[in-house]
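Hi support team,

I submitted a single chain yesterday and got back a structure, but I'm not sure I'm reading the token output correctly. Could someone confirm the output below corresponds to the sequence I sent? I've pasted both exactly as they appear in my results page.

Thanks,
R.
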Amino acid sequence: MKFKIDENLPIEFADILKNNGYEASTIYSEALKGAKDTIVISVCQREERALITLDLDFADIQTYPPQDHKGIIVLRVSKQDKPYLILFLEKILPALSQYPLEGHLWIAEEGKIRIR
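Hi R., thanks for writing in. Yes, this is the structure output for that exact sequence:
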């Protein structure tokens, strides 16, 4: 499974995912910082990558129909500091092998993941 880490998340997400057997790249590594959402999602589609983001715009299934993508994970968290976000990613990692992501939108919140 391949992931793109949005610019609003720590770049360490890529290392964590790689250490768990996934392929990951960041928006920063491809000089896409500040790119419009439509550009970001197009790059994800072209590279066949699922997107991980804090951007709630990607939770709009009218604009970003889940079936058109390799997967979108929107993190809805109470804190957005780096240590908390890294811990949160580590908590949801097991779900990646338990639930389908391709063609789905995941809204990951403290204590639950909603899949559409």
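A quick pointer for reading it: Residues 82-96 form the longest helix (15 residues). Let us know if anything else looks off.

Best,
Support desk
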